[in-house]
Amino acid sequence: MSAAPIDFTVRPDLAAALTGWGRWLAEEKRSSAHTIDAYGRDLAAFLSFLTVHLGEPPDLAALSALTAADFRAYLARRGGEGLSRASLARAMSTLRGAFRYLDRAGLVHNPALATVRSPRVPRSVPRPLAVDEAMDTLAVAAEEQDEPWLAARDVALFTLLYGAGLRLGEALALTRREAPTGDSIVITGKGRKQRMVPILPVVRSAIAAYLDLLPYRGEPDSPLFLGARGKRLNPGVVQRQMRRLRPLLGLPDTATPHALRHSFATHLLAGGGDLRTIQDLLGHSSLSTTQRYTAIDSARLTQVYRDAHPRAKG
């Protein structure tokens, strides 16, 4: 994936440097297009602020001369515009990443940014569904669709999310060639990192039932999950379907398509699943991330320790 030129109102030397940063994100770091777009919006907001703050479009020398007070002024301005602490923290993360790149390239050196603290973000704990709620969601998934093939599609997709722990984007990125029809499937997740995920018979059956009813013909590289008009299914449509199911089942607002992935991990852990295995199945780089997703409590961690550590046995 190649990066599009970054078009900011800045001096030519800074514009060229930021275009190189975007290319590095895409080709070296292998960030997704969505991530690069989000970084671009954050950086555009910062550079727009600087143009007003400094009285002229910034260049590389201007970035090198910024003080901690300048960065805090930016945070204060964005906070005054109603940006949440999470969004402010992400904006600062974008700045740190861009400045690190410019520093490594020998273009900008500014130690002041390191002295500015990012806003603290409240630690959020995912809310998985209970086992019976997850099963009811799969059972009722077809009730909000009049077309049989659309009903089969929703059942297949929700069964895949809960049965294999996929992210919604990962499921919607699948092609017909990659349809889960065997015992396992290779998923390309964040950072283009690949992992192998086992496929349960109930998942294969749901996918097969959907494909049998699918009215659109397609090539092997065509999207697996289609919308009503035969195009790749939009994640917003899936989220809307989940919102329609919530009142039918009495589910809270936290019952989203992603909650099915949370439930996959939590229910595996409750059934005695190994943390490292669950980490691999979810495609997490850090075990601490897996612990958040599975809502592990201290009692469960103690039990894992007692069962696994050689000195804790006997």
Description:
- With 314 residues, the protein is mainly alpha-helical.
- The chain has 2 domains: 12-115, DNA polymerase, domain 1; 131-259, Intergrase catalytic core (hpI Integrase, Chain A), CATH 1.10.443.
- Helix content is 56%, strand content 3%.
- The protein has 14 helices and 2 strands.
- Strands 1-2 form a two-stranded antiparallel sheet.
- The longest helix has 22 residues, at 33-54.
- It is globular and about 60 Å long.
Instruction: Please identify the oligomeric state.
Output: single chain
What is the rounded distance between the termini? 55 Å
Major beta-sheet overview: 2 strands, antiparallel
Helix content: 55-70%
Strands, count? 2
Summed up:
By secondary structure, this protein is mainly alpha-helical. The chain has helices spanning 12-27, 33-54, 60-65, 68-80, 85-104, 131-140, 148-164, 168-172, 201-213, 235-249, 257-270, 275-282, 287-293, 298-308, and strands spanning 184-188, 194-198.
Task: Show the helix and strand layout.
Blueprint: H1 12-27, H2 33-54, H3 60-65, H4 68-80, H5 85-104, H6 131-140, H7 148-164, H8 168-172, E1 184-188, E2 194-198, H9 201-213, H10 235-249, H11 257-270, H12 275-282, H13 287-293, H14 298-308
Antiparallel strand pairs: 1-2
Helix pairs in contact: 2-5, 6-7, 7-9, 7-11, 12-13
